[in-house]
Design a protein that fits this description.
The complex is a heterodimer of chains A (about 350) and B (about 270). Chain A has about 350 residues and is of the alpha+beta class. Chain A is about 25% helix and about 35% strand. Chain A: This is Spermidine/putrescine import ATP-binding protein PotA.
């Protein structure tokens, strides 16, 4: 039994430039999967291949057990939401939403009823006779979403649909799309370069870099245990620590960090004594002050302290070794130049491949 | 000071451009038989002559027939050419585009001689069809320029959206591309008609006595028996051209306004 959507070693090249490289990706029915990556990482090309606007150079794409990569877009039954909405400017809101139903030759009376119901769902029924140009960006986005949903496609594809909205509206729409996904059990493939958007909305995130998937996991695993340096740096903020492994026993690696400091980290497979490896340590996992039992404790000096409103970012140094910590507030007697003990659990320090 | 100079210079240029037109127009209403000033008295006799004399009336009808034919032909062919050059499916599109626009820059005399030889071979010399074809060659570039600009203004993702919503290519064209490009098509057609209306040189080469157009008739009447009917004909042509120009400007204004309004606004 094949997964609902399956990419089987799909490659795409434009001329001599390979944009997607031997991609394998499986998405289950009802899943919300985000394709996250910087621009040029191939994520939009993958979406366009799924929608049928681009053809893979190699490989096969399956939907519900059937091979679809040779089908034109209009035979794929996918609702696509574009970054610039792509509403038909010469049609009213109701005509826009009715368009996919007309294409399916749904009877006229049923079209009217379904358009009405769909517009009701996004609370925009009162705007049905307006032209898209008379709507605000958020309203246009909702209409584009409604138009992609109304013909009950098997998959909804979204290409950075919230990129043009301001921050507040974007966060509101994120919740709204998430809500729709849960209520209607939709399968959604969502392309974005905004990591916080991917973290809040998705069931799973596929992080892309240079045409390959670096890691695909649920948001928490992606954030807590990034597997590669790229993922650790692209998602959130992190301390990248280059350290020499002094010894490994019982899945605990003893590291020498340089400048006379040492720490313990949770060791993955394939880590051996004598080797140099990179580790990721999230700033908010570092505590300042008394170290709890069993945690790493480093004697550091506060080099700088930056106020961010809801948190502080503290720069810590010890000779040429430095860390960034994030804490809610600083105790009064810690000023720049003060000595402090920085502590973290060995399990929060994750080893990165490459 | 500099600003005053600018304005004065601007006005001077406008006067320079418009003076010849204003100089001839009052003569359409002269009572004299000579095409010169001073005007002894105003009269409608030359307007009357223009609308009743056989040569003039047939020439007006000819202009309308040939102009309409050339407009339809040029609009259809020019629109198809613009669509073909748009998708990027053809190799050497920029070369093709230059070729299609060539009739705008090639001297009309050269085109006329070539067209005459060509149409004689086809047995179309001195026929309405021949003149219509010759005119449409001159008109096509105007249609291509106008329609290409309109097509360029269409966001390709709108057509992609239509396609993903279940519309096969022909339906995408009929329901989305054409309705969005229609202002460009219409203004191309208007320019085509105006071009055909005042075309003289090609007509001299390819038209027989039966296909005399208004412009061609004015040209010969100046050489044969110069009288103020020419001024009356000029007035008619100018009014016609102004109407067409006004229509084109109106369309362009509406297109610009709708383009402004379709740009996605923040919030």
């Amino acid at each position: 039994m094949r997964p609902f959507i399956q990419f089987e070693s799909v490659s795409k090249a434009f001329g001599s430039v390979t944009v997607v490289n031997a991609l394998d990706l499986a998405i289950e029915k009802g899943e919300f999967v985000s394709l996250l990556g910087p621009s040029g990482s191939g994520k939009t090309t993958i979406l366009m291949m799924l929608a049928g606007f681009e053809r893979p150079t190699q490989g096969a794409i399956y939907l519900d057990g059937k091979r679809i990569d040779h089908l034109p877009p209009y035979r794929r039954q996918m609702g696509v939401v574009f970054q610039n909405y792509a509403l038909f400017p010469h049609m009213s809101v109701a005509e826009n939403v009715a368009f996919p139903l007309e294409m399916q030759r749904v009877p006229r009376a049923e079209i009217a009823e379904r358009v009405e119901r769909a517009l009701d769902m996004v609370k925009l029924k009162h705007l049905k006779d307006r032209r898209p140009s008379q709507l605000s960006g958020g309203q246009q986005q909702r209409i584009a979403l409604t138009r992609a949903l109304v013909f009950e496609p098997s998959v909804i594809l979204m290409d950075e649909p919230l990129g043009a909205l301001d921050k507040q509206l974007r966060e509101h729409m994120q919740l709204e799309i998430r809500e729709l996904h849960k209520r209607l059990g939709l399968t959604i493939v969502f392309v974005t370069h905004d990591q916080s958007e991917a973290l809040t909305m998705s069931d799973r995130i596929a992080v892309f870099n240079a045409g390959r998937i670096e890691q695909i996991d649920d948001p928490q695993v992606i954030y807590d245990t990034p597997r590669t340096r790229f993922v650790a740096e692209f998602i959130g903020e992190t301390n990248l620590i280059e350290a020499k492994v002094a010894s490994v026993d019982n899945h605990v690696a003893h590291l020498s960090l340089g400048a006379g400091l040492s720490a313990r980290a949770h060791a993955g497979n394939g880590l051996s004594a004598g080797q140099t490896a990179s580790f990721s340590l999230r700033p908010e996992r570092i505590r300042l002050g008394a170290a709890p039992e069993g945690s790493n404790a480093l004697d550091m000096t506060i080099a700088d302290c930056i106020y961010h409103g809801d948190h502080m970012r503290v720069q810590l140094t010890h000779d040429d070794f430095s860390l960034v910590a994030r804490c809610e507030r600083l105790a009064g007697n810690w000023t720049i130049g003060a000595s402090v003990v920085a502590s973290f659990d060995p399990s929060d320090c994750t080893v990165l491949t490459q | 000071m500099f600003r005053a100079l600018q304005i004065t210079f601007g006005i001077a240029i406008v006067i320079f451009l418009l003076m010849p037109i204003f100089a001839i127009l009052p003569l359409a209403f002269t009572s004299s038989v000579f095409l010169n000033y001073p005007i002894p008295a105003y009269s409608m006799r030359w307007m009357h002559e223009l609308t009743t004399a056989d040569v003039w009336r047939t020439s007006i009808v000819n202009s309308l027939i040939i102009g309409s034919g050339a407009t339809v032909l040029a609009t259809v062919l020019g629109t198809l050419a613009s669509l073909g050059m748009r998708k990027g499916a053809l190799p050497m599109v920029s070369l093709l585009r230059t070729l299609f626009l060539l009739p705008m820059v090639v001297p009309a005399v050269v085109l006329g001689v070539g067209m005459q030889i060509f149409l004689v071979r086809l047995g179309l010399a001195s026929t309405y069809l021949g003149v219509t074809i010759a005119h449409s060659v001159l008109c096509i570039p105007f249609v291509i320029v106008s329609v290409s600009a309109a097509l360029q203004g269409i966001d390709p993702s709108i057509e992609r959206a239509a396609s993903s919503l279940g519309a096969p290519p022909v339906t995408v064209f009929r329901r989305v591309t054409l309705p969005l490009a229609i202002p460009g098509v219409v203004s191309g057609a208007i320019f085509a008609f105006a071009t055909s209306l005042d075309e003289v040189v090609l007509t001299l080469f390819v038209a027989g006595p039966n296909q005399r157009t208004l412009a061609r008739q004015m040209f010969s009447s100046i050489r044969e028996n110069i009288n103020p009917t020419v001024a009356a004909a000029a007035l008619l042509l100018i009014i016609g051209t102004l109407c067409l120009g006004g229509l084109a400007a109106l369309l362009r204004w509406r297109q610009k306004r709708s383009a402004l309004m379709t740009a996605p606004s923040a919030i």
